[in-house]
Design goal:
By secondary structure, this protein is α/β, with parallel strands linked by helices. The protein is built from seven helices and 13 strands. It folds into two domains: 196 residues, Spore Coat Polysaccharide Biosynthesis Protein SpsA, Chain A, CATH 3.90.550.10; 57 residues, no CATH class.
């Protein structure tokens, strides 16, 4: 998937909401305006909980879909296949800007998770350098590029759910789709001054897949784990319904099948036996 100077256009799926914080409002608004101005964005499919804040924005490329509930990733893949089949689509968080985007040509049957750049003293800094964390980018993606028509099995959670990026990556992989992180190459900008997160919802269960720009993707999984309570040991005194494997099994029918298959393969590999699947 080489970088191209051609104007290959993308349909952007993203969300709109109007936060209470005025600084955050300005960031979300500026991001939408930058993406409307991008020569690489053809259409913006905007899922709106409210239209507040949109009044003075020229919505020339925007298709608004009003909804009382945030769409899940499964919803987004289905709508992309139904309405934009065969076209280049990107699902991105609403604070991800294409203002300095380096375009590329995608392959069929491939999804490209994309880690981000941050602003620092008016300069763009790659995720790892900004957070001073080697390979930290592989655990954090904010956009997924693909040719519409791919089927995601599972994924009934919205953008912004803690752990959604690596969980989505794993579900795409289990759905038979190749994943390549193109974040450093394509250069997406994160318009969010405050980078700390205070999540109120529990982390999605494992298994997960971390996508590295090197092309080497790795898996993370836990038999037992409970989130948002650091005093609890991983290996004792955990209610059965809090086990990662139980939570993963009962997320959806597809995730029940994927999780069962995943652990079966791990078990057979440990015994050095062929899995047969």
């Amino acid at each position: 998937m080489p970088i191209t100077q051609m104007v290959t256009e993308w349909t952007l799926f993203t969300e709109w909401f109007w936060p209470k914080n005025k600084t955050r409002r300005a960031e979300i608004k500026a991001t939408l305006e930058q993406n409307i101005s991008s020569i690489h964005i053809d259409v913006i499919v905007l899922f709106c909980e409210t239209k507040e804040g949109l009044e003075d924005i020229a919505l020339t490329k925007v298709r608004i879909i009003e909804s009382q509930n945030r769409p899940t990733y499964n919803d987004l893949f289905q709508i992309a296949a139904r309405d934009y089949g065969g076209k280049q689509v990107v699902i991105a968080n609403n604070d991800i800007s294409f203002a300095q985007f380096n375009n590329f040509v995608p392959d069929q049957q491939t999804v490209y998770p994309c880690s981000r750049y941050e602003w620092l003293h008016k300069e763009l800094i790659w995720f790892d350098d900004f957070h001073n964390e080697s390979n930290g980018h592989e655990r954090s993606q904010d956009a997924w590029f693909f040719i519409a028509g791919l089927k995601l099995h599972g994924g009934f959670f919205p953008m912004g759910t803690p752990g959604c990026d690596s969980r989505l990556n794993w579900l795409l992989h289990e759905s038979g789709i190749e994943l390549i992180n193109v974040g450093r190459m394509v250069r997406l900008i994160h318009n969010h001054v405050e980078t700390n997160r205070n999540y109120s919802k529990p982390m999605l269960p494992s298994p997960r897949m971390f996508c590295n720009i090197s092309g080497v993707n790795t898996f993370s999984f836990h038999w037992k784990k409970r989130f948002l309570d650091p005093t609890v040991s991983w290996m004792r005194n955990i209610p059965i319904h809090k086990y990662d494997i139980v939570r993963s099994l009962f997320s959806s029918k597809a995730e029940f099948y994927f999780t069962t298959r995943f652990y079966f393969r791990r078990f057979m590999k440990k015994l050095n036996l062929p899995s047969g699947t």
